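Quick check before the chapter quiz. The format below is the same one you will see on the exam, so make sure you can read both the input and the output lines.
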Amino acid sequence: MKQVSPFLMFQDGRAEEALNFYTNLIEDSQINEIIRSGKDDQGEEDLIMRAVFMLKDQEFICMDSSIKHEFDFTPSFSIFLECDSEDEIEELFQKLSAGGNVLMPLDQYDFSRKFGWLNDRFGVSWQLNLS
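Here is the expected output.
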């Protein structure tokens, strides 16, 4: 086995918008590869068939589904960010939650001096914790 990578499947052609948003928001992140569908492929042309991107040192893979599914992302699987400062956690929480929904407000909890949990506008779940 080479490695293990989280795989995100987006509906409605939103993969590129999401990976651009994530890689621009989180420092030391980049898009490594994008493979698009062509006119001979199933579904719409120019959908992302496979994209590889890095958030910090973690590789992610994503795609646009050419088929409408009855399921989407679930908060039971989330991306966990360990933040270094108050400013960082507050900015990330504000930007990631815009257009999404907050599952646990950014606050102090028994298990953390500052923590928040949200679904972003794409439906992807994030947990943010202040180190």
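If your answer matched, good. The chain has a mean pLDDT of 94.
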